[in-house]
């Protein structure tokens, strides 16, 4: 080779090997100072409160959704389904909101009053008020969860506001109807004594009331026998509210004698008999204080006491005395 050829210079380089363990140790020095931090901070408390608010909102939203679904179910229910819902939520006391309860009772009340749809039945100004052609009706629940209907007939003199008279109680659990016969005296007083209602109004009211009773039977209710029910012959006993004067007896004699279809018989010194058309009769027995015991029999005629008295108004003083 040419001596002038450049010499190749070999340089030996040291290779440094890194120890992985030592590197880790160097990144985690054993001489770190532990920092103490609070386990509960104001921020943590805020988070906890916010969390509880969310849970409360979720619970309220779920309750509202359940209520909306129940009210939707009530709105879509027929009569049979409404009675079952009434059993579940009112009789068996399942949880129900005030609004859903109000809706359930309202819808069920409408179904019981449905025959009055022919008399322009509609909602009134209050949530539990209904209006019809001849009267208004209030509904509410009593302590036995019965639906009570109270009636107020329309008056010509708007200055007079007669009271609502409770008259019917629908027991949804037993499927029975109670009629408050003791309220008859109130109707008679408002008609005959105070002149607030007319004879024709009572006759129309009697007809509409019996439409409701007949419809209740169609729905499966057991309707108790009542003096206001015209599906039976009238065979009733009454005691006069006040003593009967000789003037009342004399006028009764005059009224019966003026009609060829009637008759007046003297049974004894203190007992009388009034014979009416269709073999109907009224017997009057006076006690020592001149209070009358009255026996009213309508033979084959099916009629209520209101129908009877509005047909023969001259007999009313026997029950209440003079005007």
What descriptors fit this protein?
323 residues; 39% helix; alpha+beta
Please tell me about this protein's structure.
The protein is of the alpha+beta class. It is built from 9 helices and 12 strands. Helix 2 (42-76) packs parallel to helix 4 and helix 3 (79-91) crosses helix 4. The radius of gyration is 43 Å and the shape is elongated.
Task: Walk me through the topology.
Blueprint: H1 20-27, H2 42-76, H3 79-91, H4 98-112, E1 122-123, E2 129-131, E3 135-141, E4 147-153, E5 165-171, E6 176-179, H5 184-193, H6 199-219, E7 222-223, E8 233-239, H7 246-257, E9 263-268, E10 271-275, E11 281-286, E12 292-302, H8 305-311, H9 317-320
Parallel strand pairs: 6-7
Antiparallel strand pairs: 1-2, 2-3, 3-4, 4-5, 5-6, 8-12, 9-10, 10-11, 11-12
Write down how many β-strands occur, each being a DSSP E stretch of 2 or more residues.
12
Cα separation of the termini: 163 Å
What topology, given as strand order, has the largest sheet?
A: 1-2-3-4-5-6-7
Order of helices and strands: HHHHEEEEEEHHEEHEEEEHH
- What is the 3D form? elongated
Radius of gyration: 43 Å
Low-pLDDT residue intervals, each spanning 5 or more residues: none
Q: Beta-strand level of the residues, as a percent range? A: 15-25%
> Could you give a short account of the major beta sheet?
7 strands, mixed
Residue share in helices?
25-40%
Number of helix segments?
9
């Amino acid at each position: 080779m040419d001596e002038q050829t450049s010499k190749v210079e070999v340089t030996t380089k040291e290779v440094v090997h890194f120890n992985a363990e030592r590197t880790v140790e160097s990144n985690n020095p054993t001489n770190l100072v532990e920092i103490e931090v609070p386990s509960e901070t104001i921020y943590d408390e805020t988070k906890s409160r916010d969390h509880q608010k969310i849970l409360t909102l979720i619970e309220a939203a779920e309750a509202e959704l359940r209520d909306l679904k129940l009210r939707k179910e009530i709105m879509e229910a027929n009569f049979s389904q409404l009675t079952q819902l009434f059993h579940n939520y009112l009789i068996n006391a399942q949880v129900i909101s005030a609004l859903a309860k109000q809706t359930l009772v309202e819808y069920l009340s409408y179904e019981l009053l449905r025959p009055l749809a022919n008399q322009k039945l509609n909602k009134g100004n209050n949530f539990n008020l209904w209006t019809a052609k001849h009267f208004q009706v209030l509904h509410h629940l009593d302590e036995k969860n019965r639906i009570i209907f109270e009636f107020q007939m329309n008056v010509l003199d708007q200055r007079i506001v007669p009271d609502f008279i409770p008259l019917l109680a629908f027991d949804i659990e037993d499927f029975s109807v109670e009629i408050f016969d003791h309220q008859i005296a109130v109707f008679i007083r408002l008609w005959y004594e105070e002149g607030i209602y007319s004879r024709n109004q009572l006759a129309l009211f009697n007809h509409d009331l019996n439409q409701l009773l007949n419809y209740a039977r169609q729905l499966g209710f057991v309707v108790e026998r009542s003096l206001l029910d015209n599906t039976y012959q009238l065979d009733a006993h009454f005691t006069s509210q006040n003593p009967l004067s000789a003037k009342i007896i004399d006028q009764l004699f005059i009224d019966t004698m003026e009609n060829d279809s009637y008759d007046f018989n003297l049974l004894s010194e203190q007992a009388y008999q009034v014979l009416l058309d269709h073999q109907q009769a009224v017997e009057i027995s006076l006690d020592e204080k001149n209070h009358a015991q009255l026996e009213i029999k309508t033979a084959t005629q099916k009629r209520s006491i209101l129908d009877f008295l509005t047909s023969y108004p001259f007999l009313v003083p026997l029950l209440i005395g003079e005007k």
